[in-house]
Amino acid sequence: MIGRYLFTFVIGMALAFAVLTAWSWPLRASIIVLTLGGVGVVLALIQFALDLMGARSGSPARSGRVLDTPQVESGSRWGNLEAWGWIIAFYLAIHVIGFMAAAPLFTFAYAKVYGARWGVALALSAIAWGFLYGIFEKTFHVPWPEPLLKILL
């Protein structure tokens, strides 16, 4: 039982330390640490209070729900090699044609190979491209590395 209190306390203190450390940083550098760390500190305090109230009431500790997913049988005889093939192909596509072109192309190919209709695959690709373009290109101004295909041409 003491392990539960200790765990919550250590996590809460680590988050509090992160928030206090980031407090003196410039706002642009600290906004994520302050936001997520602040939420984490509040949640750790709530969890600590719930743990203490449960101990005072004398009620036995509740066991949480078991959310384990059942083992899924792979539809392919290749198993993990298929997943690694997709990851490596995406990585190579990023380097050859660039991230902004590879992400929607990968989304389309993945959706079509695994049974999506044309409209769904095209819609998912458009959403992926729009998200990347809107967030990373226009909002964050991420400098993408030059693709090999552009260098060769």
Write the layout of secondary structure elements.
Layout: H1 2-22, H2 27-57, H3 80-97, H4 99-113, H5 118-139, H6 148-152
What does this structure look like?
The chain is mainly alpha-helical and 153 residues long. It folds into two domains: 2-57; 80-152, no CATH class. Helix content is 73%, strand content 0%. It has helices at 2-22, 27-57, 80-97, 99-113, 118-139, 148-152. Helix 1 (2-22) packs antiparallel against helix 2, helix 3 (80-97) runs antiparallel to helix 4 and helix 4 (99-113) packs antiparallel against helix 5. The longest helix has 31 residues, at 27-57. It starts with a helix and ends with a helix. 7% of the residues are buried.
Describe the structure concisely for a colleague.
By secondary structure, the protein is mainly alpha-helical.
